[in-house]
Amino acid sequence: MTVDNRTTSAPAIHGHAAATVTASATATAVAQHLIHRPPTRAYYALDAPSLGEENFTLVGETPVTHPLFNDGPGHFHDLQIATGTVREIGEFVGHRYFGVPEDRPGLFYRFALDLTDLSAWRTDRAGGRAVAMETHIRARPANVVAEVPRGLDFHLEVTIDGRPCATGAAGLVFLMPKLYRKHVEHSRQAMRAAPELDDAPDGPPRPADAAEVSRYLDENVVISEPTDASRGRISTWVLSTPVSPVFDGAAGQFSGLHLLEALRQTSLLTAGRTHGLDPARSTLGACQVHFRGQAERDLPLRCVAVAGPLGRDSEGRPTVPVTLTLTQRRRAVAEARTSVVQDY
User: Fold this and answer.
1) What pLDDT, in 10s, does the model give residues 147-157?
2) CB-based burial of residue 327 (10 Å sphere; 0-12 exposed, 13-18 middle, 19+ buried)?
3) More confident residue, 272 or 344
4) Per mean pLDDT, which range of 94-98, 169-173, 225-229, 340-344 is the poorest?
5) pTM of structure
6) Which residues of 47-70 are buried (b: 16+ CB within 10 A; e: fewer)?
């Protein structure tokens, strides 16, 4: 993923390509070009971190051979393409443009995405080819201390093939190195310190049927067949193995891609089991996720989902709200609200 600096008033590149960011092949494997759009040309005379809002555009194409995003019925472009956008560039933007020291890692603690034009996400419009996809990103510093932000707030606007089709938001916090190590260690100790809170499946969990979570390949199924299902409540386990290498994360921890995919799959399965929505023609019309901690890959991770009543969107399509919680040793790792919508 290359990075250029441009002014908003001129399409030409001013100056040279400033840097190259290596996008994780396991996260997107999609060539993307990050364009910085400072408000004036005077910006280029400055060599100081920003203290205000900065705007960027991430330019690329929808993938056609990705091992995860192109696996499944393919009625829609995968929403994870958009969620991966901010995960890929968030930390880099903080270090490069806002003066956050390189030794402070960034952790996302919230994410939201709302589809505003479902038809733009249909793959039949693309005819099997890649189409242009742009994400306009507005970044603002948060909790500034001594002119260095402790976090960033992001606003996203997504277009596919020139059509605005989604808006989103995300929050990223930067931790001091010692605080980060303490955070990780505290999380691990808390998981192991109370065996009486142990929560584990009775035996090896059996993967859910791929079709019920809108995938084809078994290696891309990351949730188990529900162990409990009653009155719209479904309980599954998030699978750490055997799953595709695309879900690899930091040593010993579930990646953000892995957790978001688990929430997506559980939402589809819940809407299908509870109200009969067809997963092959369904997608998340909206999602809001709040991450409360990190999840350890060597401990069981439960996902509980509760479906709301069946409704209709503005176009008359069936839609189901779902509330989800990821827990490890009965401690909340993430909480989410999604809306599953079935296309015509």
Assistant:
1) 999 999 999 99
2) buried
3) 272
4) 225-229
5) 0.88
6) eebbeeebbbbbbbbbbeebbbbe
Asked whether 255 and 312 are in contact (CB, 8 A), the reply is: no
The pLDDT tens digits for 165-207 are 999 999 999 988 876 666 556 655 655 555 656 788 888 999 9
- Residue 77 vs residues 72, 167, 258: alpha-carbon distances, Å: 10, 15, 18
Q: When comparing pLDDT for 223 and 106, which is higher?
A: 223
Contact (Cβ atoms closer than 8 angstroms) between residue 222 and residue 261: yes
Residues paired with 290 in a beta bridge:
110, 335
- Shortest CA distance to 166 belongs to which of 73, 235, 77, 277? 77
DSSP 69-136: TT-S--SB--THHHHHHHHHHHHHHHHHHS---TTS-EEEEEEEEEES-GGGGBGGGTTTS--EEEEE
Collect all residues with Cβ–Cβ distance below 8 Å to 16 and sequence separation of at least 6.
none
Name, in order, each residue with C-beta under 8 angstroms of 9's C-beta and a sequence gap of 6 or more: none
* Superfamily for the 198-344 domain: Hotdog Thioesterase (3.10.129.10)
Q: Cite the residue boundaries of each domain of the chain with CATH code 3.10.129.10.
A: 1-175, 198-344
Give percent of the chain with pLDDT exceeding 70.
83
Burial annotation 304-317 (CB, 10 A radius, 16+ → b, else e): bbbbbeeeeeeeeb
Q: State the DSSP string of 273-288.
A: HHH---GGGEEEEEEE
Task: Write phi, then psi, for 130 (nearest 5 degrees).
Answer: -75, 140
Strands 106-115 and 54-61: unpaired
* Residue 25 scores a pLDDT above 50: no
Class level of CATH domain 1-175: alpha beta
203 token code pair: 């035996």
Phi, psi at residue 164, to the nearest 5°?
-60, 130
